[in-house]
């Protein structure tokens, strides 16, 4: 069976004592535009500077990509490309479903280059299960296997699962300002 994503969050009581606020399995989000894949949106912080303290924190999960100083952490189980159906369905309906379930995700994808996208973020991607290929804009690729960590620094890229098994990645996204 593979890794089952789970979220554990700590906090403080009013007297300063540390407590577990959340300990629960994460529920997957699926969208027809990326068939067979499962998004586990775990946690995120507001844009700006992260803070800690006694106030009960609520995750900031949307938009999908954080603004400057904001963060997101998610697990993404990538289905094998070989299992994708030939016809995905009506592009407008698929886009509307993705916009509803994962607001902001599809905004960065290039319509004429399937899978290619660029974000204003520093992303740490850690391969937990399976294998995944990271393609850059010039066609160069590297294969990630469990234990590999990618530091994605706002470059144009695409992800491909060329194997016959699902791949599980953990991504930490940190919103960044783009410089020249």
Layout of strands and helices, then pairs:
Elements: E1 6-12, E2 18-25, E3 38-45, E4 71-78, H1 91-101, E5 121-129, E6 132-136, E7 141-144, E8 149-153, E9 157-160, E10 167-175
Antiparallel strand pairs: 1-2, 3-4, 4-10, 5-8, 5-10, 6-7, 6-9
What this model shows, in words?
The protein is mostly beta strands and 180 residues long. It is 6% helix and 37% strand. The protein has a single domain, classed as Jelly Rolls, CATH 2.60.120. The N and C termini lie far apart (45 Å). The radius of gyration is 17 Å and the shape is globular. The protein has a 5-stranded antiparallel sheet, with no helix packed on it. It has a 3-stranded antiparallel sheet with strand order 7-6-9, with no helix packed on it. Pfam families: Cupin_2. This is Cupin domain-containing protein.
Give a short synopsis of this structure.
The protein is mostly beta strands and 180 residues long. Helix content is 6%, strand content 37%.
